[in-house]
Design goal:
Strand order of the largest sheet: 3-10-11-21-16-15-14-12-13
CATH architecture of the largest domain: 2-Layer Sandwich
Number of helices: 20
CATH class of the largest domain: Alpha Beta
Mean pLDDT: 92
Strand content: 25-35%
CATH topology of the largest domain: BirA Bifunctional Protein, domain 2
Largest sheet: 9 strands, mixed
Number of domains: 4
Low-confidence stretches: 1-12
Helix content: 25-40%
Oligomer: single chain
Radius of gyration: 31 Å
CATH superfamily of the largest domain: Bira Bifunctional Protein, Domain 2
């Protein structure tokens, strides 16, 4: 995941403040470590926030693990340094940083230039940033800045006692899936394509996180790594979605509405598989409650492309406070990661692709004469034989032409070996798969959903969550706190919980106040027990958004409280 995109942002602090006030007061989001003064970049999920996140992740699993068939794994959040040397994070996972010489406040240099000067900073060098920062003053004390320097965003730690084994908290969940490639390849019966999912915590030691849950130092990612043959970046179901529209912002900065199929045919999106996952991402975001008109996909500029990516698109959501915010990155990572880990570890990370029919080749091989090599070279005979087995075609051809070969201080001529031509049967080839990666920032999605769901009705706050997403699905109330009504209401409350509904019971204050309380936390249905209930076993079911009320038999509540299907 990259940084929030603030181009063309619309500032409306009032709406943001109202949403965050509800989130704090009603138990969605709480600043971490409050009793110790807090720590920026960390948030706790309260009871409603944790339930909301769980429901979103359950939907994500249904989209990708159930429908797409990607099995989920879980790998450690701490990795040895070698992993992140191979991935490029030790060298490349850095941000330009600048410090106030007067008060010591630290800023991200490119963001500072963008915010103060209103200019595009993607791709600017350190020298260019230094020139622009010369005239900028510290926003905290008005002091000047020192030189721009690079800062690695990973949390560094040590594995085991002492400081011998350096480790890092993972900046993404992806590396654990790459390292497990051989195990996963075997699990999927050594057939491409296959995909693997992982949901978990990731860590980035952000320089100055000032945007609430938009920029966290510890956050939740839901990532997929889809391993494919380099020349087969298609999807069996692309035909079903090729006519679906996408709102795209290609590298040229234009904004277009175009079908997924046409975007591929016009080479705007690199290939079918990437386009398919843009559609799937859009469908997921709409399913959890982000309005379609607030979703677009922006292609990364060449200057902002991650070091591993051949092409990358960000799903962005338009927010009132932060403008367009990146919530999902969909990247073609090519074979960068597997090759990097193969090189660093010395372990082959390849798949085998069979040919349609076997191929036969004539080749020359070197046959050692052990009756002569053994007595003459004694203890080095085994080493010589292994070296001869590993000779390449060019080395064998040179040997055949020159009549001798030298290696490791040893000279061999035709007295010790013979060269023969043989026929070799080849049934396939080893390749390094390419990887397509959709990476979801769950915390950002939750904020965007809170903002999108918020509205006001008759002076009251309402969070219009979809029933499947709502942290609490049903409120059960007696009309008044009379024993005969509360007894029935509590039975209904227990019954609905037993049937799998997240349910809340409330009997305090007027019924209008209780409706207001559950509207504010997004409860889609309210069941009210009144005196008619005692006569005919019916209750009033109130729907949150329309406020319509319907009389329903208690025995029919399960059929009437429709939480909704996953894939409409």
């Amino acid at each position: 995941m990259g940084q929030p995109n603030n181009h063309n942002q619309v500032i409306n602090l009032g709406r943001h403040e109202k949403v965050m006030e509800i989130a704090l007061r009603r138990g969605f989001l709480w600043p971490s470590y409050e009793i110790y003064g807090g720590s920026s970049g960390f948030y706790d999920y309260g009871p409603l926030g944790a339930a909301l996140r769980k429901n979103i992740l359950d939907i994500w699993r249904e989209f990708y693990c159930v429908r797409e068939g990607f099995f989920e794994i879980s790998s450690p959040t701490i990795g040895p340094e070698e992993v992140y040397i191979a991935s490029g994070h030790v060298k490349s996972f850095v941000d330009p940083t600048v410090e106030c010489k007067k008060c010591g406040e630290v800023y991200r240099a490119d963001h500072l230039v963008r915010e103060v000067l209103g200019m595009e900073t993607d791709g600017l060098t350190t020298d260019e940033l230094n020139r622009h920062i010369e005239g900028i003053k510290c926003q905290k004390c008005g002091g000047g800045f020192g030189e721009v320097w690079t800062y690695n965003l990973m949390f560094r730690t040590h594995i085991g006692p002492g400081e011998k084994k350096v480790g890092y908290l993972r900046p993404e969940t992806a590396q654990g899936m790459f390292i497990l490639f051989n195990r996963l390849y075997g699990f999927y019966r050594k057939k491409l394509p296959f995909g693997v999912a992982q949901i978990g915590r990731a860590y980035r030691n952000e320089i100055s996180p000032r945007q609430g849950v938009i920029r966290l130092r510890e956050f939740t990612q839901a990532e997929l790594e889809i391993f494919v043959s380099p020349g087969e970046k298609t999807h069996k179901d692309f035909g079903k979605v090729s006519g679906d529209s996408l709102r795209l912002v290609p590298r040229d900065g234009s904004e277009i509405e175009i079908s997924a199929g046409e975007a591929v045919s016009r080479d705007i999106i690199a290939h079918e598989l990437l386009s398919y996952h843009l559609i799937l991402t859009k469908n997921f975001l709409e399913c959890v409650g982000i309005p379609r008109e607030k979703i677009r996909f922006r292609q990364h500029l060449k200057t902002e492309m991650a070091h591993y990516a051949a092409d990358c698109w960000d799903a962005e959501v338009c927010t009132d406070r932060f403008g367009w915010v990146e919530v999902v990155g969909i990247a073609d990572r090519t074979d960068y990661d597997l090759k990097a880990h193969e090189s660093q570890s010395g372990v082959e990370l390849k798949s085998f692709t069979p040919f349609d029919s076997p191929k036969f080749y004539r080749k020359k091989i070197v046959v050692p004469d052990m009756a002569k090599i053994g007595p003459d070279f004694k203890g080095r005979a085994g080493q010589i034989v292994e070296r001869l087995k590993g000779l390449g075609e060019d080395e064998i051809a040179a040997f055949d032409e020159e009549g001798y070969i030298e290696f490791d201080g040893i000279r061999l001529d035709r007295n010790y070996v013979s060269i023969k031509e043989v026929e070799e049967k080849v049934t396939g080839e080893k390749i390094t798969p390419h990887v397509i990666e959709p990476s979801f920032g769950i915390d950002r999605i939750i904020y965007c959903l809170l903002e999108a769901a918020y509205n006001e009705r008759d002076g009251r706050n309402v969070l219009s969550f979809k029933p499947r997403v709502a942290p609490i699905q049903v409120g059960v109330f007696p009309l008044v706190a009379k024993d005969e009504l509360t007894a029935v209401a509590r039975k209904i409350y227990s019954k609905l919980r037993g049937e799998g509904y997240y349910t809340v019971y409330d009997e305090s204050d007027s019924i209008g106040r209780r409706y207001s309380r559950i509207d504010e936390i997004g409860v889609p249905f309210a069941v009210t027990v009144d005196f008619d209930t005692l006569k005919d076993d019916t209750v009033t079911v109130r729907e949150r958004d329309s406020t319509n009320q319907t009389r329903v038999k208690i025995g029919e509540l399960k059929d009437k409280l429709t939480i909704g299907k996953m894939f409409p």
